[in-house]
Amino acid sequence: MILIVDDEVRLAEVTAVALEARGFPAHFVGSAAAALAWLEDNRVSLILTDLRMPGLDGRALLAALQSARPEIPVVIVTAYASVPDAVALVREGAFDYISKPFEIDDLVATIERALKLKETEADNRRLREELREKYDFGSLVGTSDPFRAVLRQITEVCDSRATVLLQGESGTGKELVARAIHDNSPRSNKPFIAVNCAAIPDTLLESELFGHVKGAFTGAVANREGRFSAADGGTLFLDEIGDMPLPLQVKVLRAIQEQSFEMVGSTRTVTVDVRFIAASHRDLRREVERETFREDLYYRLNVFPIRLPALRERGDDLEDLACHFLGRHAKSMGKRLTGFSRPALSAMMAYHWPGNIRELQNCVERAVIVARGSLVEVSDLPTYIFDERPPIASATRLPADLDAELERIERKFITDALQESDGVQANAAKRLGITERSLWHRVKKFGIRVRKHTD
């Protein structure tokens, strides 16, 4: 509904009839006070108000609306001599102004632009709310000691612009943590741009990151902005950076250090203001030793490292996470599920979840789809979680993720040695045949808590 406010009642009536003929429901009143009263009981999409009226004028009406109903766009109607006043009102919050006498086509065009902008802003607000609900700290579910350590680190680094390096197995929620850092930082109202370096072919990754100019290579038919430019003012999340080719790492290092780069095919330097968060399921320190990852880039990224624990290290969190996903998927599917049966939960607790949180979420989604009662039962769970799986890959069964499997084995040896040595690291290092300093680095890398036993 469009509300027309004008003390020239005949003109307001004619305008209302013309808008009705164009498909816009309209109502008219003769004063600003009447408009405010009518708004209390009626829904309005836009207000078209005259500027000069006795009593409360268009300026006073705009001020009242900016305070009470800022979501309603206001178009000011003014005589030619009052255009400077109308321009000032636009600066104060009016959508636009139109001069008397006006053509109905011009008025309709202005109204359509205002309503389109209102719709876009509403969509943006809804999207921001959905993203915040999905990615804020409320979605980082867990109370286990390893995960509380992650939450503490996120809290520590949010307000800074320090580069963050997230490391952990696939499916541990690295992008979720990156978004939480961004959403709780001073850059939260700026773009969060994510790039999966492993998902883009090496030949296209440079152009994807830095953009290109027309004619830079075959198929470059126009200039194209890259992800670095798109993230200006906000955060750039470089996921799986361990898969980035070595030659490109040099250019990325310079862009991170200097906050500047050149588009592919251009010599003009582009300067940006970007906060960087990188992630990898690989052990980048080991990749440096293998000379598959640049040492200088590693140290530039490793300003604030956060290690994300695997789900098998977060046994106390599994039930909370499963119930969190159950509530989300049940709501989206319109199902009334209250939880898991005790046998179903026991089966889930016994499984080792090599795919981590991502695998758990997929498992719960599948269970919600097939569940028929108020609880998820054992029969609703996918059969693979009941498969017998050896704790260490045998010669006849290769691991899905060699780096993760080697890390798990190394962690097991270290924790066993520490337990056998009553937490004395010097003795544990001797049992493992490594230096105490080497053991200390591994304990820190894996986030192992060392407890010394006392008599």
Q: How do you describe this structure in short?
A:
The chain has 455 residues and is of the alpha/beta class. The chain has 18 helices and 14 strands.
Helix and strand topology:
Blueprint: E1 2-5, H1 9-21, E2 26-29, H2 32-39, E3 46-50, H3 58-68, E4 74-79, H4 83-91, E5 96-100, H5 104-135, H6 145-157, E6 164-167, H7 174-183, E7 192-196, H8 202-210, H9 227-230, E8 235-239, H10 246-258, E9 260-262, E10 269-271, E11 275-280, H11 284-289, H12 295-301, E12 304-307, H13 318-333, E13 339-340, H14 342-350, H15 356-370, E14 375-376, H16 402-420, H17 425-432, H18 436-446
Parallel strand pairs: 1-2, 1-3, 3-4, 4-5, 6-11, 6-12, 7-8, 8-11, 13-14
Antiparallel strand pairs: 9-10
Key words describing this protein structure:
Rossmann fold, alpha/beta, five-stranded parallel sheet, 455 residues, 4 domains, elongated, 13% strand, Helicase, Ruva Protein, domain 3
Give a structural overview.
This protein is an alpha/beta fold. It has 4 domains: 126 residues, Response regulator (Rossmann fold, 3-Layer(aba) Sandwich); 165 residues, 3-Layer(aba) Sandwich (Rossmann fold), CATH 3.40.50; 76 residues, Helicase, Ruva Protein, domain 3, CATH 1.10.8.60; 45 residues, Arc Repressor Mutant, subunit A (Orthogonal Bundle). The chain contains 18 helices and 14 strands. Strands 2-1-3-4-5 form a 5-stranded parallel sheet, sandwiched between helices. Strand 4, helix 4 and strand 5 form a beta-alpha-beta unit. Helix 13 packs across helix 15. It is elongated. About 2% of the residues have low confidence.
